[in-house]
Amino acid sequence: MEELALVTSELCENAIKHAIEGTLILDVEKGGRILVIRLKDRGPGISDISMAMEKGYSSVKGSLGLGLEIVRRLMDDISIKSIVDQGTTIVAKKFLPLTTDIVEYGLLSIAADGYLYNGDAYVIKEFDGDSVLLSVIDGVGQGLKANLAASFMGRLIKENYRLPTAEILEICHELFKKGKMEGGAAVSIARLMPGKLEYAGIGDTHAYWINDKLNILKNIVGSVGNYNFKPPIVQEIPLSEPVTLCLCTDGIRNLLTRPPMEEFSDVQQLAKMLYNHHSRSYGDVTALVAHYKLCDS
């Protein structure tokens, strides 16, 4: 709530400095899971929105130029429409954490024996008050080099979660090569949204969605950031009932049969079972599990 108060204060101060008049409305969406700030003013407008979002920018002499940059940094989503000499409309949104009646998570991520650094990484990025992007990244090899590769791609995935899944993987590949980093990574990305599961995977990570049976999600052969990168194939699965999703790096053996879901009180127990009964004797191990409950009725 402190972040919301600061953003509201900065937007109001910005409007007072620049606008003739304006209105600010605080609202909620999707049952209170998204906090929304809407500001509409009549004033000079913003001639260069991208420049106005930069830290330190201000058209007022002596101003610290913190307003819009703070909004961009503290809020999860921001849209700005502005017409010079007419005014500006800003809509900023903050996504609240999803509650357990929407999704539950289980996670184990452990470095290979004898290594200080974990060569795996994972991403959990909730958005839009009802959806989540999940990813596991397995850096080539073990140790620090693999850790740097996986962590780099994890940051890119989280920063670009709004882009189409295939485009996220392509960005990871291009920027990894551009940065002249060593190795590469196997990557799985999944989105759980109301009524739909979306998935793409490259390399030797593996993924499953589980209802009354075990359903395998397909990866293509290759590596992100390496010479054998191939265009991703995105799979879309309609969801008509709650579903459990498992994303694993190659430290977990491929599943051949449906886990006994009825024996687990929560999905963290499923993640532990994957580690205890299916992990290999070598390599980093990551099992990321989500039980998602929003589906088409």
TrEMBL record:
Alphabetized SMART domains for the sequence: HATPase_c, PP2C_SIG
SUPFAM superfamilies membership: ATPase domain of HSP90 chaperone/DNA topoisomerase II/histidine kinase, PP2C-like
UniProt cross-references to InterPro entries, sorted A to Z: HATPase_C_sf, HATPase_dom, PPM-type-like_dom_sf, PPM-type_phosphatase-like_dom, Ptase_RsbX
Domain PPM-type phosphatase: 100-292
The Histidine kinase/HSP90-like ATPase domain, residue ranges: 1-99
Pfam families: HATPase_c, SpoIIE
Name of the featured protein: Uncharacterized protein
The species this protein was found in: Flavilitoribacter nigricans (strain ATCC 23147 / DSM 23189 / NBRC 102662 / NCIMB 1420 / SS-2) (Lewinella nigricans)
Top-level taxonomy: Bacteria, Pseudomonadati, Bacteroidota, Saprospiria, Saprospirales
